[in-house]
Each structure stands twice: as C-alpha cells, then as structure tokens.
C-alpha cells in the first residue's frame, strides 16, 4: 500500500498543486468554483485561503514527499452547524490504489475528534462510481439521490448523497 501523510498546506506546495489540478478529469467531478485551467496563481490563492478560512479545514495529502490531493471540510451554519460537508480529490497517477479511502477515513476521524461536528456529508455526481466507492470504503452510507440537482458541463446531473454519523 502506498503510504501518505495528511498535513496542512504550505506555500511551497503551489507548483505541485497546480500540476495536479490542471486536469480536466478532476475538474469534471468538482464544483465549477474550482478554476480550470488551474494555475500556480490559483494554487497560491487556495493555499492562503485554506489557512485563513474560519469553519473550514483542508488537509493536503502528501505522497512521495509531494502534495498529491486534498480533503476539505466546510462547516454548516445555523441549524446545520453540527454538520460538515467533505470534498476531496487526488492526483490522477494515484487513482484506484485505495489511497483516498484510507486518507478520507483518517481525515474524517481527526476532524470529528477535533470538532463538535456529529455528521459529515458528501455529494457525488452520477457516474462517478469511483468516488462513491471511496465514500463507502471510508464508512459513509448512501442516503439519497437529488435528481438533476447540479448543472455541470452544460447538462443537469443527479447528485448522490452520502453521510457518516460521528
């Protein structure tokens, strides 16, 4: 099994981050707020923002001494204040190796220990079976499908919803 380290982002990760995220296959499964093409300037903006955000936490996934992915938690507000949404991506060379499932399980455990969140949820576009398997292997359960909930790449797509209770 490929070893990895979860750690905070560093400005020196900018070039590796830009190299990983300038990938249409990753962007196709993320929100449109993720820039594409993805530049080093975008990377530095993200790294600075990740260290300053209130109520969010981002973990860099380091593989072979280089930034290769991210797991990010965004805390809910108001009546959903004990919830957090998790999003993640991994550099394409590391897909289908079980890394993301293990990293997600570790990050979720750490997040739940360090916060008062009681529920973590994730949303996955229909057709992204690999991401659904990641969530299932990390202990999440499918809890519904929002039909035509997202508009991505010029078409409406269903959104599969997953949750994990702490």
Considering the chains and any ligands shown, give keywords for the structure:
166 residues; alpha+beta; 7-stranded mixed beta sheet; 5 helices; globular
Strand content: 35-45%
Q: Tell me the number of strands.
A: 7
Strand order of the largest sheet: 1-2-3-4-5-7-6
Oligomeric state of shown chains = single chain
How many H/I helices? 5
In whole angstroms, how far apart are the ends? 27 Å
Cα gyration radius (Å): 15 Å
Proportion in helices = 25-40%
Largest sheet: 7 strands, mixed
Rounded average pLDDT = 96
Poorly predicted runs are none
Overall shape: it is: globular
The helix/strand class is: alpha+beta
The H/E string reads EHHHEEEHEHEE
Summarize the structure.
The protein contains 5 helices and 7 strands, in the order βαααβββαβαββ. By secondary structure, it is an alpha+beta fold.
Structure description:
Helices cover 30% and strands 36% of the residues. Helix 4 links the parallel strand 4 (83-90) and strand 5 (119-125). It is an alpha+beta fold and 166 residues long. Strands 1-2-3-4-5-7-6 form a 7-stranded mixed beta sheet, with helices on both faces.
Topology record:
Elements: E1 5-7, H1 14-21, H2 24-27, H3 40-52, E2 56-63, E3 66-75, E4 83-90, H4 99-114, E5 119-125, H5 129-137, E6 141-152, E7 155-165
Parallel strand pairs: 4-5
Antiparallel strand pairs: 1-2, 2-3, 3-4, 5-7, 6-7
């Amino acid at each position: 099994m490929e070893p990895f380290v979860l750690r905070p982002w560093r400005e020196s990760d900018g070039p590796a981050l830009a190299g990983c995220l300038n990938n249409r296959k990753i962007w196709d499964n993320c929100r449109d707020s993720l820039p594409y093409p993805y530049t080093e300037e975008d990377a530095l903006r993200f790294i600075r923002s990740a260290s300053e955000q209130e109520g969010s936490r981002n973990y860099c996934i380091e593989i072979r001494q280089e930034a290769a992915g991210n797991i990010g938690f965004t805390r809910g507000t108001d009546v959903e204040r004990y919830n957090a949404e998790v999003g993640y991506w991994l550099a394409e060379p590391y897909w289908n190796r079980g890394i993301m499932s293990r990293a997600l399980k570790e990050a979720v455990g750490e997040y739940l220990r360090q916060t008062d969140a009681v529920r973590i949820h994730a949303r996955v576009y229909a057709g992204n079976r690999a991401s659904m398997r990641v969530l299932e292997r990390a202990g999440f359960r499918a809890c519904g499908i929002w039909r035509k909930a997202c508009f991505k790449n010029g078409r409406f797509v269903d959104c599969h919803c997953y949750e994990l209770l702490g």
